[in-house]
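Below is a typical protein record.
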Amino acid sequence: MKKQSFYILIIGCSRLGVYIANNLSKLGHSVVIIDEDESSFILLDVNFSGFKIEGNPAELETLRQAKIAKADIVIVTTRDDNINIMVAQIAKEIFKVPRVMARIFDPVHEGSYLLKNIDTICPTSLAGDILLKAVTDRDEGK
């Protein structure tokens, strides 16, 4: 049985975006990555088989160029929570992308994403929870 291949749009070609794009490409998915800075694409693996689009991800024309309306999944990984929130909402509400995921840094924003059916990952909360657990486990003698 052949594995299902998805059309995945990644917003942001930072270390996280590159990591996700390279691995999804290796798994055989159709990947398009958008970034405003063309030089960021140099971080992609030489075997990356997807497409790269230089442009502002908050502009509808850039998203249309990336064929966002056909995307099965949109993953937003820029370093700017406001851009991530806006692009995730555009993907979900305007283009009706079935699965939208976004990285956010401010834990305060997590609740608003859940209400909009957008999956989030918050490195601040994850690291904070791990560190708090390490401290409390140590206090309890674990």
